[in-house]
Design goal:
With 443 residues, the protein is mainly alpha-helical. The protein has 17 helices and 4 strands. The chain is elongated and about 90 Å long.
């Protein structure tokens, strides 16, 4: 007899099991089973209903449980069969809409009898409620539990205190250091400025500077006032120096640590440079830095570009006596060349010694290694300077002393600028024309 809808005739005698029904592709419907073989518990089950095809809600038989215990007696009976024949005759086939779920979700009785293993990391994971059938508090609690993980907190508890609600704590910022009985004067470096730089060297840290911002601002204001007064003196010493505000002359205290092995964020000195274009530009200039036991004064060309460097080498090769005459000046030899005697070789040697840091090891391109001025041609810096004691920087006598040293550097700065940035570029052509005319007269 072909399979189809169940008839009212006598039931089939063929024994059917859940495994056979699940694997049978032609099981469109299941025939009724004799009442004698039905279990009393399963007779009242909603799953032993009629053979009418409907589209019911999702059966609780196939719903995944969120706990390890069965939710109902029906599920407990379906998950572990005591009488397979009785279950097979009592439970009818589910509708067509549930056949695919039956094939995927079915687990054999042997596997169901084995205890389920817990997921790695502890108890089985529970799904976060999707809002259906759960309260807002459950959703919030589950979401918070999923978000708040170790090391991924949205917030962390702060400092605990015994303050009552509404009470606040105000921490006063430290005040600037007192003048110590020495009044601040414009144009004179105060001892507190040197003390601040010494403290900064010992505590070169951003947090420390934030807590001592008042000391920094007081020291910076004192140094800027000194620079402003010194600028007036510099314009008298060198008429090519313009009157510029301190912000265009002083250097920032912050260090560029991108390519440095030293991670300290701040310089431990204040510095300033005067030139025809302020602290920046292609011109040779004057330089001053103040620091406890490390102040310095000097001037010249530091790491010039290719064109100015080539001009300097060309001038030294052709007219080296111009540079040598500047170095042999008595005040220059006394203040910046360690008081050497009036000797060309000694002056050149002392000058080269100050600029040997990045000098070439061999001859520059285009010049002979046997050139008499080869030591000067190898240089890539043309600077000169000396250290200053704290007494030469701090106090009412310091501005006059610094101005005198700047005046000593003036001939050297003037010579460098005449070579790299000449005011009269026809000077060389005039000399060449004079030489050609003298040759013509001799002929």
């Amino acid at each position: 007899m072909p399979r189809g809808r169940p008839t009212t005739s006598a039931p089939k005698t063929t024994t059917s099991t859940p495994l056979k029904r699940a694997l049978s592709p032609n099981s469109d419907s299941t025939t009724a089973t004799p009442p004698a073989r039905q279990s009393k518990r399963l007779k009242s089950s909603p799953l032993t209903s009629s053979t009418t095809k409907t589209t019911p809600k999702k059966s609780p038989y196939f719903t995944k449980s969120t706990s390890s215990e069965p939710e109902s007696e029906i599920e407990a009976e379906a998950s572990g069969y005591e009488d397979e024949d009785a279950s097979a005759s009592a439970i009818s086939s589910p509708p067509e809409s549930e056949k695919e779920d039956d094939e995927e979700e079915y687990v054999s009785s042997e596997e169901d009898k084995k205890p389920k293993r817990k997921a790695k990391g502890g108890s089985a994971k529970k799904a976060v409620p999707n809002g259906k059938g759960s309260t807002a508090g459950d959703v919030v609690a589950a979401t918070a539990k999923a978000i708040v993980q170790k090391g991924k907190e949205l917030w962390r508890p702060g400092v605990k205190s015994d303050l009552a609600p509404g009470e606040e704590v105000f921490i006063k910022l430290p005040k600037a250091r007192g003048d110590g009985g020495v009044k601040y004067q414009e144009g004179i470096i105060h001892p507190n400025t040197m003390l601040f730089l010494g403290d900064l060297k010992a505590n070169n840290d951003r947090e420390w500077l934030k807590m001592h911002d008042a000391d920094y601002r007081q020291s910076k204001k004192d140094f800027d006032a000194f620079v402003e007064k010194m600028t007036d003196k510099m314009t008298e010493i060198d008429e090519t120096i313009p009157e510029l505000p301190p912000k265009d002359l002083t250097f920032r205290i912050y260090r560029d640590i991108r390519f440095s092995s030293d991670p300290t964020p701040y310089k431990t000195h204040f510095s300033v440079a005067w030139s025809r274009t302020g602290r920046k530009g292609p011109y040779a200039g004057y330089y001053l830095q103040i620091k406890p036991s490390g102040s310095f004064i000097g001037g010249g060309l530091w790491c010039p570009e290719a064109a100015p460097l080539a001009a300097m080498r060309k001038d030294i090769d052709r007219k080296s006596d111009r540079l040598k005459s500047v170095l042999l000046d008595p005040a220059m030899r006394k203040e910046f060349l360690s008081g050497i005697s009036k000797d060309d070789k000694k002056a050149v040697k002392a000058f080269v010694e100050q600029n040997k840091e990045n000098a070439l090891k061999t001859k520059p391109k285009g010049y002979d290694a046997e050139n008499p001025n080869i030591s000067l041609l190898r240089l890539r810096n043309y600077t000169i300077g000396r250290k200053l004691s704290d007494e030469e920087v701090v106090g009412p006598k310091a501005p006059k002393r610094i101005a005198a040293l700047m005046a000593t550097l003036k001939p050297f700065i003037t010579y460098l600028n005449s070579v790299v940035m000449p005011d009269d570029p026809v000077e060389e052509s005039d000399e060449e024309s004079d030489g050609s005319s003298s040759d013509a007269e001799a002929a």
